[in-house]
Every structure is written in structure tokens, then in C-alpha cells.
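Weekly modeling sync, notes
Attendees: S.R. (lead), two postdocs, one rotation student

Agenda item 3: backlog of single-chain predictions. S.R. asked that every request posted to the team notebook include the full sequence so nobody has to chase files. The rotation student volunteered to paste the first one in as an example of the format we agreed on. Action items at the bottom.

Example entry:
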Amino acid sequence: MIKYSIVIPNYNSSKWIKRCLDSILEQTYKNYEIIIVDDMSTDNSVEIIKEYLSWNIWLIELKEKRYNGGSRNVGVENAKGDYILFLDCDDYLYSKDSLKQLNEIIENNKVDLVRLSFAGKNKILTKVNIEDKTIKDLANSVFVAPWTKCIKREKFVPFPENTLLEDVVQHIAQIDNIDTYVNSNVYWAVWNRENNEAISSDKRRYTKEDKRYSSIYRNYADLLDLKCKHDYCEEQRQFRLNCYKNIILEDKVEDYISGGAKQ
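Predicted structure, as returned to the notebook:
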């Protein structure tokens, strides 16, 4: 029976974390563990999480700031499941059968990675995989959020740390490290766009002292260092490098940071 490790990076989610955890506990497929990694929250979300702790729900409290990428890495390092899934602390699972449906696909395909879709406000469905027919298509995908992938644990590639924009570089490196994948019709997460404190919120305002500015430059440096073994990932690396280079040279960083990762 396949076991799943659901890794949740937590930061100041007191308003959302109960809904997140409840949506997992409602799953009809029960062979999973939940690993919550708290990135030095300053609200009472840790106290709420502690009410949920049990034999398969773990809390790791970081003593140094690691941001979402580092928090996810710590979660995976402590995971015991066969496959890794990610869920952000302010999001929740779309259906009580989401994990059951995913398990049926993995039982039938035994692949390194399963591509997942998601829902937005009012549970409006979004298929991120509609054009992805090959691993090359997946590498070129615009939407790279970690919670759109279910990954075999031994194939997982760590996220860049000390950055708020960890998704893009890890996506390319992750796809470069898999041999098999399948699209699915499973809607995994409901993406919370109501959280005005999330980095991805268009209501946030940034200054040039904000960490997201430096994260653009960090992404560029990480892409320079990234070594790809597959041509399609190298093509995507070069494409992203050119995008970041143009953003930096044309001083359009402020425009770029209107979207992206949370926290």
C-alpha cells in the first residue's frame, strides 16, 4: 500500500491552518503522514497545529529562517512516504477523494511524477496539464507550483533556499531528474487567493529593500549554476536565464514581482 508524505511549510497561518489540516484528515485514502514545518511564525498557528499532532502528523519548528523552499526541504528530509506531496498552509484539498484518485493513478502507472491540477476561488477548476504530453512539455510549463506535482521520494530535488522565488529553478531541476510521468485529472489543492499577506497577492506592495528583489538575482545565479542533463531542460534553463536577464537589465523587477511564490 503506497504511503504519501504531505509536506506543509507554515508561516503565520492561524487564519487558515485548521481548514488546511481538516481537508487532509477528511481524505478517504488514509495511508499518509503530514509533516508541518514552521518557519518561525509569530502568530498562534503553532499552538493550533499542536492540537492536531498524532502518530502521523508531525511538527518541526525551525530555529533559523528557511522560507518556503528550506521548509519544504526539511519536510522531505524527514519524510517516510513513497511519494511526496506539497500543500501550502493557507490552501486546502479540493475533495475528500483527491488522495484516493491520485493513488489509483500511481497504482496503475508507477511513475516518478504525477502532474496535478488545482482550483481557484469558488473552486473554479484549472488544468495545468492540458498541453503537457511529454516530459519536454512539462519542463516548459508556465505553472510550476510545487503543489501541482506528486513526486517519488527518491527522485525529489531540493529547493533553493534563502529566496522567496524557489519554484522556477527547482521545477527545471526536478523535471531533469525524472524518467517517467503522467498527467492526471486529479484536482489536488484549492489555491487561496484571499490571503493578502501571501507573496503572490496582488495587493502586496514591495520596496527595493524587499527580499523578493534580491530573489530575482538569486534565481539568475542559481540558473547559471544549474547543470541539466536533458536538452529540453537546458533549453528551459536558457529561456529563463534570458527572461531574468531582460528583467534585470531593463529594471523591470518591480513589474515581475506582482506574482510568484507565497510567504
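Discussion: group reviewed the output briefly. Residues 231-249 form the longest helix (19 residues).
Action items: rotation student to repeat for the remaining queue; S.R. to check formatting next week.
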